Amino acid sequence: MGFESLWMFDLMGTVFPVFFVMILGIIILSAGREIMGWKRNRNEPVLTVSSRIASRRMYIQQRQLDDASPTATTLYFITFEVESGDRLEFKVNGEQYGMCSEGDSGRLTFQGTRYIGFERDHRAHSIGSGGMMHG
Hints:
- Keywords: Membrane, Transmembrane, Transmembrane helix.
- It comes from Paenibacillus zeirhizosphaerae.
- The chain is an alpha+beta fold.
- It folds into two domains: 1-43; 45-120, CATH 2.40.50.660.
- The chain is built from two helices and five strands; from the N terminus they run αβββαββ.
- A five-stranded antiparallel beta sheet has the order 3-2-1-4-5.
- The protein is elongated and about 80 Å long.
- The protein starts with a helix and ends in a 15-residue tail after the last strand.
């Protein structure tokens, strides 16, 4: 056994554990950040404010694992403008996204960075002349 075979044991005995600890540390830090964000949101008060939907957007993530067919995930976001002029963007589900249109006004309820709901102001709509449908 010469020098050539010893460096391989040194590589597996030193570099691999360091690499493993770094990956494990990244995973733990990411999980800790999520937990801290969740805890911070739980400590915030639930607020309901008058707002208007300023914009909506979608973000589509595509992934392909090995030989499997590609999968796509769609993330939905709504930006609300409150009375002070500040804008708040929240991640919402597809159903909530579909129920909202830009320009809608109503009451936004949220807790920290967590979206809870949006209740649109009800407007009276007239159909045709005299408020009656014609066929």
